[in-house]
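Fold sample X.
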Amino acid sequence: MSSIIVRQILAGLYWVEIPAIGLRLQCGCPPDANKYLRAAGFIRAEAQGETGPNAILLADVVTNPYTQGWFPVNAAEFSVMQMLYLQGLIIPNHPNNTGKKPVLIGAAEEVARQMNYIYCGNYGLDSPEELLAAGMSAREAEAFWYVKKKFAFGTLHPITHLIEPVFLEGVAPVALADACQIERLRPNYFRISYAGESVEIHLQPQIFAPAYQLPQVCIPRSVALGILHMGEGDGWDEKRPCMGSALTFHDTYYLIDAGPHVLHNWQQAGKAIADIQAVFLTHAHDDHAIGLIQAINTGIRLPVYCGSVIKAAFVKKMSALMGVRSEEMERFFEFRLLAMQRWNLIAAANGATLEAMPCYSLHPIETHIYYFRYTDANGTVKIYGHLADILSEKGLQAMERDAPEQVCWLFDHIRTNYYMPADWKKIDIGGGATHGVAEDFIQDSTPVKIWAHLHRPLSATELQIGYARNFGDWDGYRV
């Protein structure tokens, strides 16, 4: 029996396991890599935490964002987050937290780029000065800095505290463990050897189809305000797209967030990227934003609506991923900044207006929720709330329990944002330490509450409080 187990999942993704030394190596890291591994059975839920890889071999990047047809070859954020949080490698007192860190293997430049991008995805803006420079007031920066440190278990650590880098330079073999080594034979060809055996891996980076299957659906026409449901899953759900919606306003279309494969999903609704008026961005985590980076491949410069703080966090993280200077991000996206906590006019048609209000939420990185207000010529008002990546009441109470007096204002402010009156709300109920729960919305007066951002079936209790939606379902208002 071979001591090295190897399975090909995609042309750019392999699983290599050496049980004798406990090595579980993910070779290749395209966007949504953890979903492909779940679909193939290599990530499973167990009593003390999920299984999965403990090391990643990055593909060699052979193009750059300024060349035609560029796409992100490696996007390791969620693969590393799965190890740190769902496997429990970083969680204090977790049985899987043995002090061993995820290992990131590859060319020095690419490893450094990925580690910088993962650091930005873990912490976002990493000082009060950065928060101020991004547009927060001194009062806001002090409060959000307190929250950021709470999410980080007290301290924002250097990325080498979270990840162990291993650099492959040239063709020289590099030791991974006793009697185990890896070598690059030539670009994107690798050999992994252990105890006299070896396997060769050829990574073929390309844009892969999603792990899930979607039906072909149609967007209703002649809808004054429509909410097309583009995804109710999260970054771990291999059967559904990540949480997102498309907002229709008199036959113009806006996306709310752009998770992995968003353009593929949009095509399943019969639309092309040219049909997108703009994208409203809630935050820079890959399950909400990597689709914007994938869209660079089309050559279209997408308009992106967000607050200045979200822009700063997105630019910092994604410029690191792409290997470009932060100022260069304006070449790829047209940023349209929104004023916080107030209505911003977005469009007008047929005597009606569409406005958007970004509101602060609490999450490990800078995050907004959105309310969209439709007002017709007769004064009829309809409001849709998109509450991606919120914090539960239990989480809010834990945050404010020991908070200094000068930051306590923030928590009731956040509660006010979450429970604003609306006609429809799509709500993150992913649970855990960084997401919402359905029970917090029992008293919310919104008549249609739609649950999203989870990778499990809805419970009977959740379905008594709110509703399920599937890809292609829609809610809205016809004149």
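Fold sample Y, listed below.
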Amino acid sequence: MNDFCYVGAETLEIMAGAEKYNAYLERLVLKYIESGKSGNITVLDIGAGIGTFAKKISTKGYQVHCIEPDLQQSEQIKELGLLVDTSIENIDNNSVDFIYSLNVLEHIENDEEIFKVWTGKLKQDGSILIYVPAFNVLYSSFDKSVGHFRRYRKSRLIEILKEAGLCIEEVRYADTIGFFVSLLYKWINKGNGKINKNSLKFYDKYLFPFNRLFDFLFSKYIGKNVFAVGKRI
């Protein structure tokens, strides 16, 4: 019986209100789904949470299958009219065109082993996008409170993709401004790991939009997050 319960459920609800940040992630996913693909595309959202992104992606005409082990959250996804399973073992190997996983891999202790399971679900020429927190120097009470084992550097993502036998298409940092905001949070937070909803809204509305410029200039070197795209060949 699946009794998994995600400790960061409250954070998911708060982050659902970060409209500009979520819109950026939606555009990022769509960019790589649509890159060089045509026809009926099967998409897998691993660690779908409450369906924030799966619902948006599905409105673009894609068949999105969600994987969410938290039973309460998987029920919320069902209520959105989306297909959901609690285990990736229910997905056939070599059956998926595109996989995306947003802020999930850092929750998995044996990340390299599990990543190979994920990529085994891809068809030949299928692609995967993973987006995770970057730089262990930013690891804070927030990371600990939501069950993060680690944060990543580009070099580590490259290793994981190569070990899975993928051709690397892109690896980049993202959210340059967020790097410095997260560093400040680490210094001043009292240790409860909570996100202030009003502070998040302020950052999302007034600071995050400037990342388009700053990421263009500095994402090769720094960012609050890092993402990688790989293709199964």
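Sample Y note: Residues 9-232 form a domain with the Rossmann fold fold (CATH 3.40.50.150).
Also: The chain is about 40% helix and 20% strand.
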